[in-house]
Design brief:
With about 375 residues, this protein is α/β, with parallel strands linked by helices. It has 16 helices and 11 strands. The chain has 3 domains: about 140 residues, Rossmann fold; about 130 residues, no CATH class; about 70 residues, RNA polymerase sigma factor, region 2, helix turn helix motif (Rna Polymerase Sigma Factor, Chain: A). The strands form 2 sheets. Strands 4-3-2-1-5-6-7 form a 7-stranded parallel sheet, with helices on both faces. A 4-stranded mixed sheet has the order 9-8-10-11, with helices on one face.
């Protein structure tokens, strides 16, 4: 029986994780969950799974849960996430919260020697060097990526040794606006940007997919997770989202992980690794229904997210944290109708231009860079 804490249980990744736990054959026990605003769904999850530990992001939600479930150990906001990750009574921490708020919770899990099922890419983007140092200092802790692309790379790397890797190939669906020109993107709406062709995801990550910033963040994350040089990471557009990523080895063999575009597969693998157990909630991939697998070069002139990320990653130090914070603030402004779609790139670029990189020696440095960057974005663009 593996005991699991899910941070972000009301979001897309979190609800998929609970579906896995719900259908497991007594293999998992949910001991802790967290939500931000959607306290009503969180209360339904408490009712069903009876976790002993809960964290919520709003005062309204805190009061409602406290009144209905007085027996629950209840925590609050970002400090609550950190406290929840710091309890002893679990084996696996799934960090499925969006944004930099997940970093401190991940740090707590590592210090406790836990398995981190990482679905929060900002952790490795903004604080990758620090996280890697912590993992070396706490060898009993280990990190299994849940992001579909990095899970695919992790699985494909089992086919060879690290020094045999020639190149990592990250696949991208191309996002909502694949094939569009800059002129066509000038006045796109929020509703248009949220209509992803393949994946059902949260609002923020769907916008990131539309700008290809998401793919850029994945490049930085792959560099930090797998220790591969940026020159040896390639992005390929694969519209069908069947091949989730690949690894090319020095002998020119390419090993890929295939599957339906459904996050339940990498979530379950992170829970059961190194074992593979029956997945009770997924249909098998039907090759006879596929219409073919195609590949394209990404349009990096129109969709600047990839090159901005390569620039931030190669600069190193705190620059990836700036990229991440500026993007989060810009996406928030776009979703609230304050800026246009293409202004997201402008904001990221200007934020990076004005920043002097510093070494990431602890979480406080990441938090300070993150806060300063967001404050600048909002002061300049929130009209």
């Amino acid at each position: 029986m593996k005991r699991i804490v899910v941070l972000g249980s009301t979001g897309s990744i979190g609800t998929n994780a609970l579906e896995i736990i719900r259908h497991s054959q007594d293999g998992f026990k949910l001991v802790g969950i967290s939500g931000h605003r959607n306290y009503k769904l969180l209360m339904e999850q408490i009712e069903e799974f009876r976790p002993a530990y809960v964290s919520i992001g709003t005062k309204e939600g805190y009061d409602a849960i406290k009144a209905k479930f007085p027996e629950v150990n209840l925590y609050f906001q970002e400090e609550g996430l950190k406290t929840l990750a710091g309890i002893e009574e679990y084996d696996i921490l799934l960090t499925a919260v969006s944004g930099a708020v997940g970093i401190e919770a991940t740090v707590e899990g590592i210090k406790k020697g836990k398995r981190i099922a990482l679905a929060n890419k900002e952790t490795m983007v903004a604080a990758g060097p620090y996280i890697n140092r912590l993992l070396k200092e706490n060898p009993e802790a280990h990190l299994i990526p849940v992001d579909s692309e990095h899970s695919a790379i992790f699985q494909s790397l089992c086919g060879g040794k690290k020094d045999e890797v020639r190149k990592i190939i990250i696949t991208a669906s191309g996002g909502t606006f694949r094939g569009k020109t800059l002129a066509e993107l000038k006045d796109v709406t929020v509703d248009q940007a949220l209509k992803h062709p393949n994946w059902s995801m949260g609002r923020k990550i769907t916008i990131d997919s539309s700008t290809l910033v998401n793919k850029g963040l994945e490049v930085i994350e792959a560099h930090e997770l797998f220790g591969v040089d940026y020159d040896d990471i390639e992005v390929v557009v694969h519209p069908q989202s069947i091949i989730h990523s690949m690894v090319e080895f020095k002998d020119r063999a390419v090993i890929a992980q295939l599957g339906a575009p459904d996050m339940k597969l990498p979530i379950q693998y992170a829970f059961t690794y190194p074992d593979r157990v029956a997945n009770e909630v997924l249909e098998p991939l039907d090759f006879f229904r596929l219409n073919g697998l195609t590949f394209e070069k990404p349009d990096r002139k129109t969709f600047k997210g990839i090159d901005l990320a390569f620039r931030a990653g190669r600069t190193g130090k705190s620059m990836p944290a700036v990229l991440n914070a500026a993007n989060e603030a810009a996406v928030d402004l776009f979703l609230r109708g304050k800026i246009k779609f293409l202004t997201i790139y402008e904001i990221i670029e200007k934020a990076m231009d004005r920043h002097t990189p510093v070494e990431i020696e602890n979480v406080d440095i990441v938090k300070n860079v993150d806060k300063e960057t967001r404050n600048w974005v909002y002061s300049e663009y929130e009209r």
